[in-house]
Every structure is written in structure tokens, then in C-alpha cells.
Amino acid sequence: MNSLEGRLQRCAINTATLGHREPLGTTLDRIARAGFGGVAPWRHEVEAVGATAAGRQLRALGLTVTGYCRSAYFAAPDEAERKANMNANIQALNDATEIGAQCFVLVVGGARGVKNGLAGARAQVQDGIGELYIEARKLGMPLAIEPLHPMYATDRSVVNTIRQALALCESIAPDDNPMLGLAIDVYHCWWDPDLVSSIAQAGQAGRILGYHVCDWLPDTRHMLMDRGMMGDGVVDLQGFRGLMEQAGYTGMVEVEIFSAEQWWKLPQDKVLSVCAERLQSVC
Amino acid sequence: MNSLEGRLQRCAINTATLGHREPLGTTLDRIARAGFGGVAPWRHEVEAVGATAAGRQLRALGLTVTGYCRSAYFAAPDEAERKANMNANIQALNDATEIGAQCFVLVVGGARGVKNGLAGARAQVQDGIGELYIEARKLGMPLAIEPLHPMYATDRSVVNTIRQALALCESIAPDDNPMLGLAIDVYHCWWDPDLVSSIAQAGQAGRILGYHVCDWLPDTRHMLMDRGMMGDGVVDLQGFRGLMEQAGYTGMVEVEIFSAEQWWKLPQDKVLSVCAERLQSVC
């Protein structure tokens, strides 16, 4: 396996990594100037400037859009909210197309407040992705289900393993692998006893649409906002990328770090330079 | 499935639920007085009064000891610590026998600081349980591996699913199901997409040695110390017990709640009365 040294053009920055502290235009300029080849922006950022303007700037900077973050939840406590979320997701597909995203990232929603709890939420997610998939096909915009760590099953996502996400893909779009697949994030999946076989299976199915890195810190202080910089935690990042590449993944390596107390307090250019250094040394 | 109404004799209290705020003797008296049939005490409590005295009181009160909590870690950063932990575990087996515990509960240790990280820790765990199992057989003391939630893979346990724990059992003690099995805790396992088949498989293998309940709270504020009282969270507790009983489990239902900011601040007898009420209404 080749190291990422000298290959920042194969690396992307998820804008959450910089803490969403400034307008998208400034963020995109910084990321391109730092030498990265790609970016994953968030809906609220793109909507603030408009997808047309965002798309124009992205093309001018030559940045690949590795993914558009992220869906509203498919699992919802009531029909009105479910419907509003679905409409937001359909609108987001148009914006994803406008900015040239490689995929629209799906975070599916948790069990909280949903009728029949976990089982009910999982059923709603299956139905909801099926519904959005029909719209996505019309636009040719691939959907990437992101399995989230099991600790988010209540508040954020009832899809919690690669294998579970793969089963959803096979069930909803059995013969359409480029259009419904997975975004695989080390933070969510590194602990999985079935990691090796799951990634291989996802690759074999042609369903891997994205790869996100950060690190898991010992003594994590917050369940959402305390992800670590690559190299500061316990994840075997080179081993993980090896599995991804053996599975045929040739896409970008995207950094996504939520870190309210550490990295979001540092100057953005500093964060980008540490990302660049760590991508080339420990990923 | 029968409700637990009127069957507190089939229910047990893990002493952690009361916050370890008083000597074991007082705790045991409270639990028996409240009408529970069983208790799961912790090593530091039993060691403080001595296993002989603890055993004598437990027998006098007629309390079943559903499990003895818990092993020192099998995964360790260095050989000295690994060996010290193994010796502590062997001593604990003697104490478990002395107090008449139904099993010794194994929390296996996390990946943090261990050579080769997650993979290295999992190998150490396999070897360590194998070593302790030889001692446990001599004493006839069953070992119950407790899979912990994946969010503890760094700091507490690299065994994170029922299926993974079962594979360890089959590998270490293939023909000895009553002596090496699992303690299944809803907090750690409720999210698992393979829950139904995993519990069935564990039951078929004759490996279910314990069942722990609490609840998962929305907006969990602390990764260790914010478990919920049964009924206050999202877990389908009656559904879960149904799976356990379909799998042939006839043992006790043990309440284990770590709750530094809520339940551990209330009077112990109040906590016990709420446990009794919830066991009989929502479990």
C-alpha cells in the first residue's frame, strides 16, 4: 500500500473539521490553498450562499466534492416531520447535483420518539431511503448511507454497522450498486469485530462511495464533539485504509473531525496544516 | 411471556445501582428487606469485609448471587500488569466460590495502550480468558463474558457484541457450555442489528449465564455514568426479555445502573423501590 505522502490531491476536508466558523467561500479558498484535492460541504453552508454560486466556486478552485452532508432524518416521531425531512432531502439532491457532489450522504435518524422504537425507526429508514432513491435515480445522484456508531442509535442513526447498511442497499437497490452505497467512517466502524469481512463484502458489491478518517481518543469526553485528530487515538488508520484499498476503493480520503473543545478552537489554517501532516504520516 | 409482577424473587440488584455508598453488609440487608431474590456484589466490597463473612450473610439472607463483578482486564499495556490482573482474577474466583456466585463476570479490557491496538488486545483477551478458564474449571466457577457497548472498546472492553463473545466461548471451551458463557446487558446490546439471531444462538449453545437491565437515555450526558432507570429510555425491555426467555433463559433479571448524577444521589431505599416498581411494570 502506498502512503499518502505527496498525495494531498487524493485527500479531502469535510468542512465540519473547521467548525463551521466562517462562510463557505472562505472555507473553500482555505482548503484549496492548503493543497487538498477535495471537500465535503454541509447543507446549511451551501444553502446560505446558494448551490449555484457554491458550484461555480468549487469548479473554479478545481475541488472534488467527495460528498454532500447530509440528509435530514428518515426516522421521525410524526408524519409531518417525516414529510418535511423528505422534502428537504429531495431539495438537497438538486443542490448536490448543482455542486457536482459524488454522492449525497445519508444520516438516517435515531429511535428516539419514534413509534415502536428501534424496530419502528429501522422500518421507517428502509421505507424512506427507498423513497428518496427513486428521486436520486432521476438525477443520477448516488446516495451514500453512513453507518453511525452504535452510541448514536437513539439520537442520530439506527444504521450502525457496515453489514446492516449493505443489507439495506441490497434490499432497496439490488441491481444498482453505483447509485446506493456506503460512506465508511473509521470513527463509527473501527471497533466492529466483522470489520475485515464487512469492508470486503462492501467492496465486492461495488458499494463503497466514501471514506472518512479521524481518530478515537482514549477518555472521550463528549459523545459527539470529541473526535480526535488522526494519530492522537487508538484507530489503526493504515490498516483500515489497507482494507479499503484491498476492497477496491480508489476514492478520496476525507477528514471529518467534530472537536468543539480542541480543534475548533484553533485557527483554521493551523488545523488544515495538521490534517495535511497527519494524512501523510499516519493514514 | 409472564410479567415480573409479584416476582421480585426472580429479580436481583447489582450493588453498583446503589452507588457503592455504604458497606456491603448494609447494602445486602436493604436489598433483602426490599424483597429482591438476588444480588450481584463487586470485588472491592467483598474484599473489604472478606469473602467468608460476605458469604455467611448472603446465605443467612437467602440471597442468590447472580454474578460476582468483575474481572481485572485481560488486555494490558505490559506483562507485569497483565500478570497482576490474572492473579487478581484467580483470587476473585476463590471469593466467588466462597460467596456462592452463579458466575464470575468478565469485563475484558480495552485497546488503549496495548501493543497492536485493537487486534493485539483481542488476542490478549482470547489468551487470558483461556488461562483463567483452566483455573475456573478446577473450582467449578462459571465465567460469564460480558460484551460491552462498542463505545467502550478503547477504555474498557474489546468484546463488543454477543456474537463475538460467543465465538470466544466456542473457541476456548467448545464442549463446556455451562462453564464459559455470557452475561447479556441490554445497555450494551440493545442496538445490535443481529440481536434476535445472536440471543437465539447464545441460548441454543446453552451459554446465557446472566441478564442485566437498565435503559438507554436520550441525550446521554456521560459515556459511563448516565444509564437510565428501566422505562426512562428507548430500550424495548419486554421485547428483550422475550428474546431471552425464548432462548431458554430462566435465570434472574438483574438491575445494573451507573448513574452518578441521578440515581446515586437519591436515598438507597428510594432507588430500590423504584427498581421494584419498574421491574414489575416495564421489564
What does this structure look like?
The structure is a homodimer of 283-residue chains. The longest helix of chain A is centred in the middle third of the chain and has 23 residues, at 117-139. With 283 residues, chain A is α/β, with parallel strands linked by helices. In chain A, strands 3-2-1-8-7-6-5-4 form an eight-stranded parallel sheet. Chain A has helices spanning 24-33, 43-49, 51-61, 79-98, 117-139, 162-172, 186-189, 195-204, 237-246, 268-281; strands at residues 11-14, 38-40, 64-65, 104-106, 143-145, 180-185, 208-213, 253-255. Chain A starts with 10 loop residues before the first strand and ends with a helix. Chain A is built from ten helices and eight strands. Chain A has one domain (8-282): TIM Barrel. At the A-B interface, helix 5 and helix 6 of A face helix 5 and helix 6 of B.
In short:
The structure is a homodimer. In chain A, about 40% of the residues lie in helices and about 10% in strands.
Q: Show the largest interface.
A: A-B, 34 and 34 residues
Please tell me how large the radius of gyration of chain A is: 18 Å
What does the main sheet of chain A amount to? Answer: 8 strands, parallel
Oligomer: homodimer
Parts with pLDDT < 50 across at least 5 consecutive residues of chain A: none
- CATH architectural group of chain A: Alpha-Beta Barrel
Shape of chain A: globular
Class computed from helices, strands and strand pairing of chain A: alpha/beta
